[in-house]
Amino acid sequence: MLSSFMALEQELDLSSPVHDIRSTSLKTFEILGFPTKKDEAWKYTSLAKLLKNDYSIFPKKESSLELKDVKKYFLYEIDSYKVVFIDGIYSPFLSDTTHDGIDVCLLSAALSKPKYKEVIEKYFNKVAAKDESLTALNTSFAKEGAYVFVPKSVIAEKPIQIIHFSTGEQGDFLLQPRSLIVVEENAQVQIIERHQSLTPHEVLTNSVTEIFAAKNALVDYYKIQNDRIDASLIDNTYVAQERDSNVNVHTFSFGGKLTRNNLNFTQNGEYIDSTMKGITIIGEQQHVDHYTLVNHVQPNCESHQDYKGIYADKSVGVFNGKIYVDKIAQKTNAFQQNNNILLDNKATINTKPQLEIFADDVKCSHGCTIGQLDEDALFYLRTRGIPKREAKGLLTYAFANNVLESVAIPALKTRINKLIATKLGVNLGHDL
């Protein structure tokens, strides 16, 4: 890693304040190393097999893609801004950025141009964990990704799509995108993020996203994870909220070899609402791990977590959710639920909802369920002439459907419905 870091530094401005951040982060990673199953937070998820590959960190050449070949991966039914990367390199041909009222552009530009200096110094690497090894690794190589800035009282007129394509032309490849999302007071934005491998090759993405929601801001963030079986993703998302803000993060995990979602919220003011919802539907030997943390450090705030998992074949699911309530965070209302269905005897789910409460005037609850499809309900549907496979599909669809109710982009809700139907292998028999 050190030689790769030195190569990167030769390309960049060493006088930039980000240079010191990168150097410090590399030292942190060298001390911590990659996480192992000996670490409590990684008890059920091993990176050992992935780390046996000899990944390239920098692209050997610039790749290009035709829109017709990748159009299906966009939410093309609606007008949107787009920030698209191919093997870690920005694609102006596939992108549609803007500086008209809001900034939707590249992190590399924000890190290097003087007009962004104030925002970068105030927000970059301020909420991302300084003691988490993979976040430190990403910060060491932080160079490219999406930069979104929504000024005070501005409502983004259309959603923003952030898409990372991996072509396979670089061989086994390690991608480390870094995104910064800043939404100022009374502003609103909707963002859709996707990582997509296009050919059979080993790709490991170690992504970090920092989201800042100022007073009374609204952020809807959607993660679509439906990658090829060769692709693995470690997604680190850090959210900092100020008074009266509302941030919703939906995570749809349907594909990939190994997916680890680290989602961390910090509430820095009163009357904040934080929502985390997820649907996982996997099979074969896929592995999806959701690790969430909500820091309630101010009074009169709420958080809501609702994760559903459907596991088939030899797939493995992990949910480790933690709610921390500080002693001054009175009147906290925190809810956490993780419900799972195992469709096959060899499927596995490890779930660990946690509450750590130091305040006495709070309303906090957590719970989890692990089970199989309701045989009585299945029998009822079959007596009405519905074949067994379709009956199972209807029951599993109904199980996951309430997570979709809060999706605020109708075209995206339709797309996710179709993805669920495809994953379940059934025709749900109604207009999606």
Task: Please state how the strands of the largest beta sheet are arranged side by side.
Answer: 2-1-5-8-10-12-14-16-18-20
Distance between the termini: 47 Å
Largest sheet: 10 strands, mixed
The structure class reads alpha/beta
Question: What is the string of SSEs from the N terminus onward?
Answer: HHHEEEHHHEEEEEEEEEEEEEEEEEHHH
Helix % is 10-25%
How much beta, percentage-wise?
35-45%
Mean pLDDT reading: 91
Q: Which SSEs are present, and which pair or pack?
A:
Layout: H1 2-11, H2 17-32, H3 67-70, E1 81-86, E2 89-90, E3 103-106, H4 107-112, H5 117-123, H6 133-140, E4 146-150, E5 160-166, E6 173-175, E7 178-183, E8 188-197, E9 203-213, E10 218-225, E11 231-241, E12 246-253, E13 258-267, E14 273-282, E15 287-296, E16 302-311, E17 316-325, E18 333-342, E19 348-357, E20 363-371, H7 375-383, H8 388-401, H9 410-424
Parallel strand pairs: 1-5, 4-7, 5-8, 6-9, 7-9, 8-10, 9-11, 10-12, 11-13, 12-14, 13-15, 14-16, 15-17, 16-18, 17-19, 18-20
Antiparallel strand pairs: 1-2, 3-4
Structure description:
- It contains 9 helices and 20 strands.
- A 10-stranded mixed sheet has the order 2-1-5-8-10-12-14-16-18-20, covered by helices on one side.
- It is globular.
- The N and C termini lie far apart (47 Å).
- The protein is an alpha/beta fold and 432 residues long.
- It has helices at 2-11, 17-32, 67-70, 107-112, 117-123, 133-140, 375-383, 388-401, 410-424; strands spanning 81-86, 89-90, 103-106, 146-150, 160-166, 173-175, 178-183, 188-197, 203-213, 218-225, 231-241, 246-253, 258-267, 273-282, 287-296, 302-311, 316-325, 333-342, 348-357, 363-371.
- The chain folds into 2 domains: 2-268, no CATH class; 374-432, no CATH class.
